[in-house]
Structures are given as C-alpha cells and as structure tokens.
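Below is how a single chain appears once it has passed through the pipeline. First comes the sequence as given, then the structure the pipeline wrote out for it. We keep one example in the README because the format questions we get most often are answered faster by looking than by reading.
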Amino acid sequence: MKFFHIGRLFFIVFFLGNLLTPVSAAAVNNPFGGLIINKTFCNCSGNWIITLQTPKSGLPRDLSFDFGSILYEFMKMRVGEQVLGTWEGAAQCLHITSHGCVPKFVSGKVVFPRIFMVGTSGGQLDSTPPPEEEKPQCSDGRDNDGDGKTDYPGDPGCDSPNDSSEGDPQCSDGRDNDGDGKTDYPDDDGCESDEDNSETLEPCSCNCSDGKSEEETRSELAAGGIEINKSPCPRENENNPCESTKTGTNSEGKAIYSCTDVRCLPQIAIDGLIELKRKSQCPVMITGGTEPGHKTHAQCKPVVDLRIDRSGETLNGCVDKYIAANAESVDRSGSTGPVYYLNLDVGRTRFIDERIRNYPQHWHVIFDGTRMPQNLNKCLAKQYIIANEGWKNEPYTDSRGFPTVGVGHKLDPGDSYNRTLTNEEVGDLFEQDFPKYERLAKNTAAPRGVQFESLSEGRQIVLIDMAFNMGSGNGEGLDDFDKMWTAIDNEQWDIAGDEIMDSEYAGQVGDRASRNAEMMRDGGTGVAERRVNDVQKAKDYDCGA
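Resulting structure:
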C-alpha cells in the first residue's frame, strides 16, 4: 500500500492561495479521504472525477474535484494512493463530443463534481483502523446508511449484530433513490421486489449501438440549446414496457401521440441538430422524434421533424433563411415538398419543407451519414515534430528560457530527466509526451465546433505540432488562434494559413510556422515529408520503439 504524505503539498497550496481562499474557510468542515480507485478528467470543463474507497476511519467518500482550484500535484498521484483533504462546492463535469461540451453521465445522471483541496487538513491518512472500528456496521454504534437508525435491532437493514451492512435495499428503504417521485416496491416501477437494491428503471436497450435513454438524450440536446415541443410518451404497455403508449385516438380510431420521444435517436442526429443550432444561431425545436405514429420515423433512425415559423411559400423564418442560404442544391420534385441538401460537419443532410394534408407544415430532416474520418499517420507526425523540435540528449534552455531535454520536453524542478539521457530514454520520453499533445489539439478543436478527425492528415499534423510547440489552454498557445479556428470551421484554408503567419508564434519559430501555414492551406503532407527527409535524426526515428 502506498501512502501519500500531505505535508509535501503545502507550498503548492500557498502558491495557489488566490484560487483556494474563497472556499477554504467553509471546506475545513467537510473532510474526505480514502484510497484512489479511479480518476477521470472532464476534458471540456477542466475538472476531474475521482472515486475513493471509503477508509474505515470514518471519513466520508467524495467523488470529484475541480481542477482549477486544486493543484498540479494531483495529476502525479496514481490509483492506489491515499488522499486526505476537504471539499466544498460543485461544478458540472463536461466532456467533449464532436459538437462541443456536453454533461457527463454516471449511472444515468448528470455529474456535478465537488471542489476539493488536498493538504488543507494536514496529516496522513492511515488505512489501518483501530480495533473498535473493525466491528460490523450493525454493532459499531454508527448510523452507517444515514437513515436515522443505528445498529441491530434499531436499523431494519440489520439482520443481526454481526451484519456487515446497515443498508436497506433501495426498494425497501423508504427513499426515492432514483428521483422519479415514486418510492419502494411495489410503487416504484424500477423495483422487482422489496429486496431489489436499485429503484432505477433500467433504460430499454436500443438496437443501434449509439442510442441512449430518453433522459440522457434530452439532457444532451438541452445542453446544445435544442428544444423539444412535448414531454415523452408514456410507457404503460404491460406486454412491452419499453414501447411508447398512444395518448388517444382520432375519429377513425387511429393512434394519436400527443407527445415527443427522442429515445434511441442516433448520435449523428443529435450532433447535427446541435451543429444547426450553433451555426444558424436560430431557435431549433423538435416536433417529431422517435415516437410511433410516423411513417418514416423510428428508434435508431436519424430522422426528426422541426418546427417551422411560417405559413406558405416564403422562407422568412430564421432556420428557413439559414437552410436556403447554405443549401448546396434544391430538388423541387419531391412529393411532400422541396428538398434542400446541406453538407454539415456530420455529413449530407436533407431538409424537406414537408407539406402533408392534415399535418402542420414542418421541416422533415434526415441525417444521411457522417463524413469519413481521415487517418492520421502518427509516425509522420512524430518524425515531423522531431525535425522541428530537435533531439537533445543534454538538458538545454529553450528560446523562452525553459529548461528542456529530449524532444522539446520541458523540465520541472526535481524532474528525474534533468540529466544526460540515452537515445532510448529520449525516445521513451517522447512517446510519453506525444499522446498528450495529440489530445490537447483535439480538445482545443472540439469546443470550436471543429471535428479534428474529419480534417485532412496534413492539417491534423499542423495542429498537433502547434500544440506540442506552444501548448494550449485558457486563451494561450493554440487556444489563442481564434480567427484561425473560425476559418478552419468554415473551411477557409487560405485564411487559416494566413492567421498562422500573422501571429507572434510565426515571429518566434520562423520557417516552422511557414511550413505549417503551407500545410494548412493545401491539406497535404508533402511539406512534412520533405522536412523529415532533410533531418536525419527524424528520418531514422523508429516509430515503433
């Protein structure tokens, strides 16, 4: 077992005092601690989720913390180490998708990390409990499950004094554990018996691999600014509880669905709707989704109906004008209305100005298919970066005054690589560094609406090289090229290349910027290949090492 001494972090807490001060006073009353069994970075909101195994000493288990108010040292801590600290506050965990930042779900619910600080309570977490704390929960004198009842026979969750858990099964604990307004068996639909330990009604599986539950899909659409006109359809069919239930019938006895489902709506449709909202800056409202009652809609089909803000022929609504202005072609021979073809980032999309008898006029939208992702030649990308950065076995000071070694690896105080390295060590260090900057380039692109994987190979290499050279984040480095990103999003490659050259970066790195600007303009890899061939160390680099 590896222990983590908190005292060694006090100098970092002091250095970041301006970030920690607002919460530190309240946080001292909220201790947490335990063994790190998992940690995940929320790459869009810049915070972390960690999972701690509750220590037997009684400190509470906490699930997450905000990177902005913690300290760099945590990134060096590993699963299997112990932490001790205090927590306060919360902030949403967002992760990056092709259409930007969306909330992260754990067990079907949006995650709200807590801010927490390591080192504010001092000391060292001891995983060896005193003898009295080894008692079973049902005889340890504590209300372990927080239900206001303690030990056997006072807590109904205890079968005997030797029972190791006070916890009642969720379906008989008197609580609405899944927040659906229903409690315990038989009232909660998610309970199969009073011994069932989950009130959550498991979402019915979708036949499509990327389909999600109604709740998760609605949350993702809402995060992207998409509205839905009606609540989900009820699911009260005894034979198939996953099937949407009709809410009435018309005069002919046909089912009426005065509700709108988005359950099992494919990801391409979700991404495309959010892209439409972002690019058009118009209100976007779904009026028809995956609920039954449509001829061409169904679960796992990338088809939706959108509200139309007009009556008749004139395209005068906000979405109307965007579709008309950006359509690559229009087919007016359709039986239900003219078809406008747009090439969105998610691929070709058909907007049908649908006019069907007895139905309100609306946009019927079909997302035909994604653009094929471009393969990245990582070996060429690595060789190109080596050719640009150089290969140094001895530590040196770079152009900005930072101590550096290997292939542009910035040294931190006390870094074990601050010495003469063998070629094998330089290669190993570079192989560790490269994936970080590949992710950094992708994570900088996503919030800008740019699908990194859909860019040409040459342009992907340019962005990774720029991230490797100057970093990215908080409006600095690659994140500071706002006009370049706008040009990339609009596929204005000459302008994107010009923006690379019209920067302080270009003045600092000279020919490197010129090469990257040329590759950004033409999208090919010829420039990178010629550069690698000119630098023997790069040309000889074994990418499989």
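Residues 6-118 form one domain.

See the next section for the split statistics.
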